[in-house]
Design brief:
By secondary structure, this protein is α+β, with helices and mostly antiparallel strands. The protein has helices at residues 15-23, 48-51, 61-67, 78-95, 121-139, 152-158, 175-179, 192-200, 206-210, 214-221, 223-232, 263-284, 316-327; strands spanning 7-12, 32-35, 43-46, 72-74, 99-103, 106-110, 144-149, 167-169, 249-260, 288-297, 302-313, 336-344, 381-384, 388-396, 399-403, 414-418, 424-426. It has a 5-stranded mixed sheet. The longest helix has 22 residues, at 263-284.
């Protein structure tokens, strides 16, 4: 913990849903839910209008529809989220060279590395307000909540206190006063299981956690977890803001709207993913030893299997062979909704000819059909030759309904077309140079 409030945590408010509302004028001020839109879908982000009905992240789509049936359920547009996040991260890096992104919608910033006259509370408060205004400007109205404190832990906690579109600065010396009344689950890593263990021990608040000895917490939760909680209960967090994190793994995965049951198709998809992983590794000048596959079954059970090679490789064919072998050990007869391949244990050298001939073999050249996907997912960007840009309002029975509007227009008209209308196209942003 520092002697100054010099670590800032920025969290974009209901980010995915906010981007959808920005780009779809007819949805502004209305409940929007982004995530899987099928019967087994899971909520990724809910707008604050939807949260009033009790909808939250990780909730099943079925429950979300029951709670808020009038919401707009959208499948998500990651190109728009990435582009908006990129603008926000650029603003943060203009402020300080030490920016540690945690995801598309949140990051830590080290204000001690910024060019500020001092780190007094008044100064960092003004910086936080200016930053929030700048983020709103570059994103076209997306709001952010900011926390500023003497450690990462406190800054993260502070950014949760005044949502949405707010800011909390924790003056040095007041950290424990802020923490003590809070429930223990505000501490990172204290999920339902740990909360229940602490509850059974009579520990509900951070003040009660602070009163417990380190030895008792270690006996209750284990060495690493117990020691970590003992420190955080006393606001002890000395982690630095790390601008660049070394990649620990490179992976590719895909989620499918219709369960995959054809083993040949799964092997072909894993092969394609393995080739992409290999290509990314060669581009980055890295290789890896441990190949892992991730398989999510029809019932949401997620399985993973790994195999470690004797030497690092960046060869897609080698990675594919291992991935297909790992798949052979799993029972996938009930159906698979997600497949992924990753390589970890990264190094900066490659052992050639790991399996002798590492060239493409006959199996690697198999052409498999694309798994079935929803042709017109709700929320997707489209363009009509005559009507212009819009988004998919809904589809089914060979018909797709489009609302024609963009972030720069007022709410637009709704029109329906045949799903195979040649004048209607999926719209993709121009490729970055």
């Amino acid at each position: 913990m520092r002697s100054t409030a010099s670590i800032l945590h920025l969290d974009l408010d209901a980010f995915f849903a906010a981007v959808e509302q920005r780009d779809k004028p007819s949805l502004r001020g209305k409940p929007v839910i982004v995530g899987g839109t099928g019967g087994r879908g899971v909520v990724s982000t809910a707008s604050y209008e939807a949260r009033r009905y009790g909808v939250g992240s990780a909730m099943s789509g079925r429950e979300a529809r029951a709670r808020c049936p009038h919401a707009a359920f959208l499948s998500g547009r990651f190109h728009a989220y990435r582009a908006t996040s990129k603008e926000v991260m650029r603003v943060l890096r203009d402020l300080s060279p030490l920016v540690e992104p945690l995801s598309l919608d949140e990051a830590f910033v080290d204000l001690a590395a910024a060019d500020l006259p001092d780190l007094e509370v008044a100064t960092v408060t003004e910086v936080g307000e200016q930053l929030r205004a700048r983020v709103r400007e570059v994103t076209g109205g997306i709001t952010a909540t900011v926390g500023i404190a003497s450690s990462k832990f406190l800054a993260k906690v502070a950014s949760e206190l005044d949502k949405p579109d707010g800011m909390t600065v924790v003056p040095p010396g007041t950290e424990l006063d802020l923490l003590r009344p809070m429930r223990v689950n505000v501490i990172p890593g204290v999920g339902p299981a740990t909360s229940e263990r602490l509850r059974r021990a009579g520990i509900h608040t951070i003040a009660e956690l602070e009163a417990v000895s380190e030895d008792e917490l270690v006996r209750l939760l284990g060495q690493a977890h117990g020691h970590g909680l003992w420190q955080l209960a006393r606001a002890q967090d000395h982690r630095p803001v790390v601008a660049e994190r070394e990649a620990k793994s490179i992976s590719v995965e895909g989620t499918y709207d219709t369960d995959l049951t054809d083993r040949r198709l799964m092997e072909g998809l894993l092969t394609r993913q393995a080739r992409e992983v290999g290509a990314r590794m060669r581009k980055n000048g890295t290789s890896g030893r441990t190949v892992t596959i991730k398989v999510r079954l029809y019932d949401f059970t997620t399985l993973s299997r790994s195999s470690t090679l004797p030497s690092p490789t960046d060869d897609g064919a080698t990675i594919a062979r291992v991935a297909r072998t790992l798949l052979g050990d799993l029972d996938t007869t009930g159906g698979v909704r997600l497949l992924g391949v990753g390589v970890s244990g990264l190094a900066d050298w490659v052992q050639e000819d790991l399996f002798g001939d590492t060239g493409e073999d006959e199996d690697d050249e198999v052409v498999v059909p694309e798994p079935p996907r929803r042709a017109w997912p709700p929320g997707a960007d489209v363009e009509h030759d005559e009507m212009g840009r819009g988004w998919v309002w809904g589809s089914g029975s060979g018909v797709v309904t489009v609302r024609f509007e963009t972030a720069d227009t007022p709410p637009g008209p709704v029109r329906s077309f045949r799903a195979d209308d040649p004048a209607l196209h999926r719209w993709e942003p121009p490729a970055e140079e």
